[in-house]
Amino acid sequence: MTKTAKTTNSNLEKDPEDWVSGDEPMTGAQQSYLKTLSEQANAPELFSVKLTKAEASKRIDELRSKLGLPDR
Q1: Domain definitions of the chain by residue range
Q2: CA distances from 45 to 37, 48, 60 (A)
Q3: pTM to 2 decimal places
Q4: Cβ atoms within 10 Å of 57's Cβ, excluding its own
Q5: Which Pfam families does UniProt cross-reference here (predicted)?
Q6: In this predicted structure, what is the pLDDT of residue 5?
Q7: Residue 12: its pLDDT value, please?
Q8: CB contact at 8 A, 10 and 32
Q9: Cα dist. 71→49, 60, 64 in Å?
Q10: What's the CA dihedral at 63, 16, 20, 23 to 10 degrees?
Q11: Integer Cα distance of 53 and 55 in angstroms
Q12: Alpha-carbon span 5 to 61, nearest angstrom
């Protein structure tokens, strides 16, 4: 039997709200990617340097969806 990324124990499927480090400031990589995505979506108001890791992850997912980009 093979395991997939959709396994319930997978960190790939864990809700950002449940992350242990979700309340920490977003990473530099998240900040850069979020800025790029918000510019591509013509929605610069969705970018903020004050987001947590969890908030940034959710916003990145929202913008990727809005832009029609495939799931990560």
Answers
A1: 22-67
A2: 11, 8, 13
A3: 0.72
A4: 21
A5: DUF3072
A6: 45
A7: 61
A8: no
A9: 24, 11, 8
A10: 50
A11: 6
A12: 17
| CB count in 10 Å sphere of residue 10 | 11
Tokens describing residue 5: 């990324």
Question: How far, in Å, CA of 2 to CA of 56, rounded?
Answer: 32
d(CA 54, CA 59): 9
Q: Could you write out the three-class secondary structure of the chain? A: CCCCCCCCCCHHHCCHHHCCCCCCECCHHHHHHHHHHHHHCCCHHHCCCCCEHHHHHHHHHHHHHHCCCCCC
Mean pLDDT by 10 residues, the chain (72 residues): 47 68 88 97 95 94 94 77
Please give the Cα distance from 63 to 36 (Å, whole number).
Answer: 10
